[in-house]
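Listing S7. Sequence submitted for prediction.
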Amino acid sequence: MGIYPSIYLANFIFTSNPLKINVLNKYFLIICFLLSFSVNASEDDTLFVKGVYSQHIVDYFQRFEDCKAESKEEIIQHFNKGEFQDMAPSRIVNLGFTSCLNYFSLKVTNDQAFAEDYYWSFYNDGILFTLYELKNGRLIEIGETSVAQKLEERPTPIRCLSFKVEMQAFETKTLILKTKLQGHSNLYFPTDFTTVEDILIYEANNSFLLGRYFGYFTFTALFNLFLFILIRRKLYGFMFGYILSMMAFNAIEYMYDVHLVPDFLHRFWTHFPKMFFVLLSSYFHTKVFQYFTAHKEHFPKWNSILNLINNFILFILILFVVIKIVIPQNTAFFDQYRLLLFLLFLINLTVLVINLFYSIYKKNKQSVYYICCNFLLILSLLFYITNTFQVGGATIYMPPGNIINSVSFEILSLTIAFLLNYRKELNEMNQNLAAAKLKSEKLSEELIEVQENERQIIARNLHDGLGNTMNALRLLLEAPYKNEKQITGIFNLAKDQFRNLIYQISPKEIEKIGLYTTIQQDLELFKNTSIEVNLTLLGDDHTIENIKAVNIYRIFQELISNIIKHSKATIVDITLNCDESTCSLQIEDNGIGLKEENTNGMGIKNIKSRVSYHQGIFHIENTGKGMISIIEIPI
């Protein structure tokens, strides 16, 4: 129904009721004016363009789904019969998963008094676009394009896939676009129709903007590579791999790979779908998470699960590369393989998110910081997945893209965290070095003190033992009547004292017969005493270095000497266990225990110095029934 009968009806009402004409006439004419616009808009589905056009054009599309690969003539018949269906208003084409060809018709008019060239542009890396003009009942092909083409092979040599449409003044054209999926399963693409000058300005601005993003990614990648080479920490190596894989994904997502990938690799490069690099990014991202949160130490079971999933992902990715080298063509097999990549990504993402929240629940501070760094990325991935499956309504969009903005924020925040961690680790390392230096100086002082004490003991033994014996021998030799039997006895005593003195200085028997046998021989002396000694030997003493064996033996001698001198014990239990990593000595007695004033005695100091020298552990305490001493020295 046109607007004119309404105007006639209004005139009849107003002329029959002149008292209300001044009030109602104004309102009624406004309503009729608005109705005229709505009626005109609904009657015409033609896109009128006057130069630059910045509005959405999908509202003017009509679509026909071809699942039978019909001929051009059959497509024209479907169009003439009105079987092309109107598209729902949207800024993009998003039809979800499909395996059919799709045709889109667009009726466009150059609504200006001079000729103008326009670009119909598309943004998708997995669709073959073919544009026709419906003219005189025939489909005339304007061109065909996809990302598999190099710049010089495209109808228009620019990043976005575009067709040039030349239009005369007030000319109307009916354009038919055919889409065929290549390496994708869902039909999704933004599109616009505007002037050549406008699209070139947009491409220049967009290139400048994304160039800064890729420059930032390159800088952070090189920074992490430098840290990996300098510090040799796997965290920075995995971060380097993650940034590179995200650069590859975004290069495909924004179709800049045609500029970034060399021509000789471009044909091979286009055979790799975005999901390959998404899964590769997921692999590196999980590794960064594991090392950043110290999962191996804090959550070993979860760490094993993540390692299992990631090892399988790495195997599948390597297998995909090998198969692509052998069979570069896209076949039905690769459609199933791409589905496998997507499923693995979902599984890895799900396990990672569960693991992340579990770590936060266990109050892992690094996990809290990690989720803050990745909050935007997680939302962007959810938007990406829901958009792919057409779940939910419209999502938030941050130009130039949700994922690239989220990744930029994540990389920046993680890089700051890495720097802070590196500074913290550097400070801790300096503190440890300072502490080690002090410990070394203290140990050196204690060793010097031990050496001096041992020299004093040797000097006292020489003076009291061998010295007195030699004096007695001298007196016998100077006597007018020599007793050969006494001289021989004194001489043998001196020889035994000298041998014992050498043994105290350097017990060579340990090197010959081993630590275990040496200790067994020493304990033979207790057989005819009131002290009952129980010895248990475990492991193998051949794994011990000689210097460590000597020190363990010295510690053993010192502890046994203290028991004999001070403990008044009647039972001593000794256990010596040496395995591949540690040698432990445990001595327990039933004596009176260790008095507090004796804990800083020379004997205990000597033991502590020897244990510290080998970075071991020394523990001594009273048990109520005696005393127990435990020494552990790493082998």
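Caption to Listing S7: primary sequence and predicted structure tokens for the chain studied. DSSP finds 18 helices and 16 strands in the chain. The CA atoms of residues 221 and 240 lie 5 Å apart.
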